[in-house]
Design a protein that fits this description.
By secondary structure, this protein is α+β, with helices and mostly antiparallel strands. It has a single domain, classed as Mog1/PsbP, alpha/beta/alpha sandwich (Protein Transport Mog1p, Chain A, 3-Layer(aba) Sandwich). Helix content is about 25%, strand content about 45%. The protein is built from three helices and ten strands. Strands 3-4-5-9-8-7-6 form a seven-stranded antiparallel beta sheet, with helices on one face.
């Protein structure tokens, strides 16, 4: 009987290691933002000052890597909701320029509570990383009040199933 238990434990332990999922989804609430997001890994948080519109703003970023994909969420408070449309357009253009995007596909994105004047947009673009390798960006830009957001995924290829889970996990509060 002891031999049988020992064999089961030794043979079963590699199977248990295989149970850890690549995407371990968890709810994340970014500080000072009216949003809940789902991340497939525990994100690191950072902050830096960026120029959005005509202002230097503190932008908070959450990011992590899982399954060969970088997941990122950034937000900044403009303190003026009249500027959101222009800032989101500038942010999207800057992101695409940084990627040297060659092909871009956009479609409306439904997110309850997002500013009606700045309707959310889901974008898929292929471009180039700073090291010259190919990258596919899947991203959504949106605003809630005076807070602007970008939720993004960067990977070697588009992953619609993972993108659906990530972007469906965005909930404004």
């Amino acid at each position: 009987m002891r031999f049988f238990l020992l064999v089961v434990l030794l043979c079963g332990s590699p199977l248990l290691n295989g149970c850890s999922p690549t995407f371990n989804w968890r709810e994340v609430r970014p500080a000072h933002a009216p949003l809940v997001a789902l991340f497939p890994c525990k994100p690191d948080q950072g902050e830096r000052v960026v120029k959005l519109g005509a202002k230097d703003l503190a932008m908070t970023m959450l990011a992590c890597d899982s399954g060969g994909i970088k997941f990122a969420l950034a937000h900044a408070d403009l303190k003026d909701s009249a500027m959101t449309d222009a800032v989101l357009a500038q942010w999207k253009a800057a992101t695409l320029a940084n990627l040297q995007a060659q092909s871009v596909a956009e479609q409306p994105f439904v997110l309850k509570g997002a500013n009606a004047l700045s309707p959310p947009v889901l974008l898929v673009a292929s471009g180039t990383r700073p090291d010259g390798s190919a990258v596919v960006l899947q991203a959504v830009w949106f605003a809630a009040g005076s807070v602007v957001f970008q939720a993004a995924m960067y990977g070697d290829t588009a992953n619609p199933a993972v993108a659906d889970a990530y972007f469906a996990g965005l909930r404004l509060q």
